[in-house]
Specification:
The structure is a homodimer of 360-residue chains.
Chain A: E1 5-9, E2 12-14, E3 20-22, E4 25-26, H1 27-33, H2 36-45, H3 51-63, H4 69-76, H5 84-98, H6 104-126, H7 140-149, H8 155-168, H9 175-184, H10 190-201, H11 209-220, H12 226-235, H13 253-269, H14 274-290, H15 296-306, H16 314-335, E5 343-346
Antiparallel strand pairs in A: 2-3, 3-4
Helix pairs in contact in A: 1-8, 2-16, 3-6, 4-5, 5-6, 5-10, 6-7, 6-16, 7-8, 8-13, 8-15, 9-10, 9-16, 10-16, 11-15, 12-14, 13-15
């Protein structure tokens, strides 16, 4: 289905020159100047909020952050070895069962508000810890970062994390968003659609790449190790995660914004910047060897790592942010809905006749 | 996406004349002569099983029917008002979390074997009853019918129910199966894909139609009521559930097989056949008014009703049977995988510039 246009959209645009915009605003502009909440409102409602709209939106999210206790008990029934994305998918599905009769708009806001809380806790429960409660006095980025790390981040860390969340908000018809639209087209509710989106995001070809990228960087450890590592893996026919994109063939603009953020964050932290040098050399070597550019997942991963976020939370964080894009696409699908029911080309057998089992 | 071919398939075929076949065998042939287990094996493996293959397949299903206790406890955490499809989706997601590290083939057989048990119990838990355990000495149809109704069905009832399960097994790229293939294309596991399939099947435009059809027939109550009911609803612009199909424009062959089964089942039961006459008159009147044919959901519903199956179980039963088709499409997708990543047509705004909130 590459190259087949299956929907009209006014939510985001990836232009032929590789530039990305949300609702007409260049991602670079939003990355440098906007808040996560402003961008989320923009994606959901189609325009940047004025002060009153923004305050209403923010307080609406704050008041819906808490997750019912029965959802934590439900998560506790899953084995301690469970994948955080499986836990998150089950928990979101469970919240959806409890909220199935709420008005659609209420479901949407509740989902977006609760995703960070569920993300923080799906990782904690894997580690055998008690549930952590959200704060209602800080923004989305600070709340999630605090829940994930258990410590109060400084304002630069919050700002850096918020930039990454903005980059993950929305990206046209990627596989999870497309899944959401297909489910939406059956007139199932937004929780059904988002549960399916999380299911798609678990796939290593989609959301799983940021975690795989980080483990690779840690395994390599030094800039000198990058080229030999890539040569060995490529000679074995292995896929290198965090590189390449369906659309961006020379540069992923989100990756470059994230790369710059990594440099600044490491400088802020005062270390030797080795992680940046490993990542940069990997990027350079991969381009030299294969002409494949680093993607967002590749450079978001070390930013999360520098913020002391557990690696298994990286894909769930992607889900928490992308849920905004999912909800927006869910609504756009319903506004001019037609059931997704594509055709297939039949290549199987014809006109066989049943014979009883004893005659086979 | 109507009319766009997005995959090659050898699993089922809906020919231009409206005939349906599974792996080259006409649905009518299988409906009259085959067992559910034979058809499931056929769909999964591509050929009808010999005796040894069938015995191995059947015992493999029997031994995997039981659902771990923690999954029942997980279901109990959902509110008593929950929709059975939401419970089923959450439970399947939870089983998937527990089985994420099993080999793919083991996951597939476990999923198919456990679906009926989960279906029977998602409805019981809604009604506040204890979990019912599967039997391991009877076929799929008898086991599920027994669990759903709490009584031992007679052999004709089992046979009738089995026919309906065969009709629901597989149907090319319907919305849930297409969802499964999109999720599979990210390399997520079969539980992730099937959870997404259940999410899609919840939609009233897809799986929910059999329940809506039954409630309509009960509301109408007599053949004379059919035409006035349809005229009133149609004049209000309401959609009549159980009619129409993306592909079958004059007759759904599965509906006609199911209609015949309804007649025979009601005769077997010895009632006055009123339910058949209501359904038949509804079908006739709808064709007269709108030239839209009854679909499978329309005639499966009264068969389930005549078997004393609770109405809220109808869509979950659809899911239990269709999970076989989902697994087969999951594997077919992976055998020649390419990530589903369609394009969109951007119709939104361009080149806007961010201004701070106080200036908006």
């Amino acid at each position: 289905m590459y190259g087949v246009a299956v929907a009209e959209t006014a939510i985001s645009r990836i232009a032929a020159d590789g530039s990305l915009s949300y609702r007409g605003y260049a991602i670079k502009d939003l990355f440098e100047r906007a808040s996560f909440e402003e961008c989320a409102f923009l994606i959901l409602e189609g325009h940047l909020p004025n002060r009153e709209e923004l305050d209403t939106f923010v307080s609406g999210l704050h008041s819906r952050r808490k997750v019912p206790k029965n959802v934590y008990r439900l998560m506790e029934e899953l084995p301690p070895t469970s994948d955080p994305m499986d836990i998150l998918r089950t928990a979101v599905s469970g919240v959806g069962a409890a909220e199935a009769l709420l008005p659609a708009k209420e479901q949407e806001y509740s989902l977006i508000a609760k995703m960070p809380t569920l993300v923080a806790n799906c990782c904690r429960i894997v580690r055998g810890m008690d549930a952590v409660e959200p704060r209602d006095d800080v923004n989305e980025a600070e709340n999630l970062l605090h829940m994930l790390t258990g410590r109060r981040p400084d304002s630069f860390e919050v700002w850096a994390f918020e930039r990454e969340l903005i980059l993950y908000l929305e990206h046209d018809l990627n596989a999870s968003t497309f899944t959401v639209r297909v489910v939406a087209s059956t007139l199932a509710d937004v929780y059904a659609a988002s549960t399916a989106g999380i299911a798609a995001l678990k796939g290593p070809l989609h959301g799983g790449a940021n975690e795989a990228s980080m483990r690779m960087m840690l395994e390599i450890g030094s800039p000198e190790g990058a080229m030999p590592y890539l040569k060995e893996k490529l000679s074995q026919g292995r896929k290198i995660m965090g590189f390449g994109h369906r659309i961006y063939k020379t540069v992923d603009p989100r990756a470059q914004l994230s790369k710059d953020m990594l440099k600044r964050l490491l400088a802020h932290k005062g270390g030797d910047g080795r992680l940046y040098r490993v990542a940069e050399e990997l990027e350079r070597a991969m381009w030299e060897l294969k002409r494949i550019p680093a993607n967002l997942d590749f450079y978001a991963a070390p930013v999360f790592y520098a913020l002391s976020i557990p690696i298994e939370a990286y894909t769930p964080i992607f889900a928490a942010s992308r849920s905004v894009g999912w909800v927006s696409h869910f609504n756009e699908q319903l506004a001019a809905n037609k059931l997704f029911r594509p055709d297939s080309i039949y290549v199987g057998q014809h006109e066989l006749t049943y014979v009883p089992v004893e005659q086979r």
